[in-house]
Amino acid sequence: MLTKINHIGIAVNSIEEAVPFYRDSLGMVLKGTEVVPSQKVKVAFLVIGESKIELLEPTAPDSPVAKFLEKNGPGVHHIAYSVPDVAKAIEQLKAGGTRMIDEVPREGAHGAKIAFIHPKSSGGVLTEICG
Ligand code: CMX
């Protein structure tokens, strides 16, 4: 069902302050930033080879990422896997007993279809599937 790791999401207080480490110290390429209003986050995509890191900065105090930062501080927020068909993957996961946060695909960055698996079903690791 999964084809590859799509990206790793990292929660930060400030994209502007976090980018120099990834871009200048690690040599990753900043591909751009985007606000995802529905999820109250600003995201920055950094690329190295085939791999991507997504920095997540909250855009409002009640953003889920703001809550995450309050509870845990900055750090790894989620791991996203590519699937060919998100709706189909949701059905397959549910049929196998996996609890989903999203039972229907929603829109993520770049207009991609995404869905989150409930961390209770994935050993505490917030897991995203994306198309
Ligand atoms: N890691 C581990 N557990 C997490 C978590 C994380 N990053 N985020 C939330 N949880 C846990 C919560 O603690 C909660 O646990 P309990 O049920 O034990 O209390 C559970 O997951 C559900 O969380 P919630 O906040 O109550 O549920 P919501 O449905 O309101 O939201 C979620 C869940 C994951 C969608 C939201 O917290 C979130 O992180 N939204 C931002 C998503 C994001 O990263 N979007 C960026 C763009 C996406 C992209 O294109 O990649």
TrEMBL record:
The keyword Ribosomal protein does not apply. It holds the Pfam family Glyoxalase_4. The keyword Nuclease does not apply. GO terms for molecular function: metal ion binding; methylmalonyl-CoA epimerase activity. GO terms for biological process: L-methylmalonyl-CoA metabolic process. SUPFAM superfamilies: Glyoxalase/Bleomycin resistance protein/Dihydroxybiphenyl dioxygenase. Keywords: Metal-binding. InterPro entries: Glyas_Bleomycin-R_OHBP_Dase, MeMalonyl-CoA_epimerase, MMCE/EMCE_epimerase, VOC_core. Residues 4-131 form the VOC domain. Coiled coil: none annotated. Belongs to the methylmalonyl-CoA epimerase family. This is Methylmalonyl-CoA epimerase. The gene is mceE.
